[in-house]
Amino acid sequence: MADRRKKTKIVDSYVTLQAAQRRAQDRPVPTPSEADSAATRPDTSPRKPGTHIGRTVMPTKYEIVCYSCDFMFKITGKAKNTYCPKCRTMLDLADHTITGVCTDELVTAGRVTLSSSAVLDGGRITANDVKLEGTVKSGHLQVHHTLELTEGAVIPEEMIHTRNLKIAAGASISFKRKAVFRDVDVFGEFRANLWAEGLVTVHPGGHLKGKLHASHFTVLEGGGLTADVIVEPKKPQPQTTPSPADKDAHEDKR
């Protein structure tokens, strides 16, 4: 019988290597222009999921002061309302812009802007932040966080009730009475007998004149200072230990 089994081909590795070298020599060598274009050609191959690395933008944090109990806390991102962590009051965080005469009452833990045509005349405004471009004639303006005075703002000194003060660029504000705030940011011109419990910052283009008594003070490059300055860090409050008599009285009340 004839042998019908297939013969196994044996391939010499040296012969295979020679064939591969001859094939590489037969390929055309790319010109410099072709090589450059190939190097700069964008990669259109599909990317595997999970290989893209991007940056995550963190939401902005806002400092809120409760208009019921005056407790200060922070929230992340913008919201329509929130609860005060201390007194559990539901706080309205809506922002408002006033363009005419205001004679009503407005309470918000958001931001209120009184435009250049706005006049507070007999109304009551309570807000977390207020940007004043217009006139405060009469009424009540309570700012729990920051009051910003811009160019053209008019307000009697005795009607300023705010924790922090900001003098906007282009504004020229002068106080005759002693001014007491926590933090003050000066972008425009500010003349006052200023007492600050926190940080006073004169920004580029700003100019502080008069007298300054602050716990912390800095003038950035481009800012001006013409004032008598006293920088005195705030002293920590001493911790008092209740006496035995006080403890006994407290136990009796319980």
Structural write-up:
The chain is elongated. Strands 5, 6, 7, 8, 9, 10, 11, 12, 13, 14, 15 and 16 form a twelve-stranded parallel beta sheet that branches. Strand 1 and strand 2 form a beta hairpin. It is built from three helices and 16 strands. The chain has about 250 residues and is mostly beta strands. It has a domain at about 95-230. The N and C termini lie far apart (about 115 Å). The chain is about 15% helix and about 45% strand.
Write the topology of this structure.
Blueprint lengths: L12 H14 L5 H9 L20 E5 L6 E5 L4 E3 L6 E3 L3 E3 L2 E2 L2 E3 L3 E4 L4 E14 L2 E15 L11 E7 L4 E10 L2 E3 L2 E14 L4 E13 L4 E8 L12 H10 L1
Parallel strand pairs: 5-8, 6-9, 7-9, 8-9, 9-10, 10-11, 11-13, 12-14, 13-14, 14-15, 15-16
Antiparallel strand pairs: 1-2, 3-4
Q: How would you characterize the largest beta sheet?
A: 12 strands, parallel
Class per helix and strand makeup: mainly beta
| Percent of residues in β-strands | 35-45%
Tell how many strands the DSSP assignment holds. 16
Summarize the amount of helix as a percent range: 10-25%
One letter per element, helices H and strands E, the order comes to HHEEEEEEEEEEEEEEEEH
> What coarse outline follows from CA principal-axis ratios?
elongated
This entry's quaternary arrangement is single chain
- Give average pLDDT, whole number: 84
Note the total helix count.
3
Radius of gyration: 36 Å
Distance between the ends: 117 Å
Uncertain stretches: none
